[in-house]
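go over this chain:
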Amino acid sequence: MRSGEREQGALRPPGNLKARPEDFVVEEIPAYEPSGEGEHVFVRFTKRDVTTPDALRAIARALGCDPREAGAAGMKDKRAVTTQTISVHVPRGANAADVGERARHLDLPAIQVHDAVAHGNKLKSGHLVGNRFDIVVRDVPAERFDEAARSLDAVVRDGAPNAFGAQRFGAAGDNAARALAWLRGDERGPRDRRMLRFLWSALQSSVFNAVLDARVRDGTWATPVAGDLLKLRDSGGLFLCSDVETDRARGRTGELSPTGPIIGPRMRWPEGAPADLERATADGIMGAGTDLSRARALGEGSRRSLRVWAQDLRWERLERLERLERCEPDGEDEQRTPTACMRVRFVLPKGAYATTVLACAFGIERASSVATSQDEPSASEEEEPS
């Protein structure tokens, strides 16, 4: 959760997230379907309370495939029920059809395979359109349901601040600091290239979130300012804001949004006041004059929209008194006064976080047992891979 959300969270209706894995259901939307031919097999599966890397390793090893040659389009939450696709490389001498057939009949704890189809290339990070969410927020005070509903209606109308979620920064919250130590040469950094990219993406995300916080505070996170680099919602085209009034009118319709920095050695900077803010923010986090050339191999830098749109956003009220399975209290909670839940459904593009959308309407609380249960997201899950 961003600092601005923490400051304002007490003003929003409280809610409890991820009390059960079934409270957080995610379905990955593929960018394309497998062709049916090739030396890789795309495996579509649902997992419960398991990390994506653990599920990937379990499936690959059960099929006799090398987990290091497996691929995933994106990381999914552990404390959740999530459906996604991975790819495994067919071992030498094996047949893709046979591997697919064996995959469809796998019996693994907390993992259910739905389909397995051959394809010509490995599934790479970011090869997805987005994610479909079905989330239950528990313990919302009944008298504040209308307030939360109005906030969700505002998200439909105006979008939501496109912050990176807390899981981007690691269970200890120190991923950005570790990346900065590596960038400055104070530490060697992890040997695992994938983990180094995780750390670098956390530092990029830290700068972006700080800029977004400042734009939220001054009310311009969705309003173009002279010098902004603006992104078109449909095409993703990027251009400089020079006609402020025209661009603000287009912003009000949702046609375009201001962008913030995904820092990198060749990132395009805005001009004027937006550039001053971004440079001051980056210098405040990384130090003035930080040499980014060491991170060139991890990404040149890009721009990310300050605003995200939740598609097909719907909500409904669920009463525990209705004895709906997903809203029944557990164990010791059975003695509590029955309270209501809200189910929220929406679709987000890749790189956007459901928790940041929900934070527009709720002061989200997580059960202590699930506070660190989320996967690390990959760097390529950004709106534009950097």
Summary: The CA atoms of residues 1 and 80 lie 18 Å apart. The radius of gyration is 22 Å.
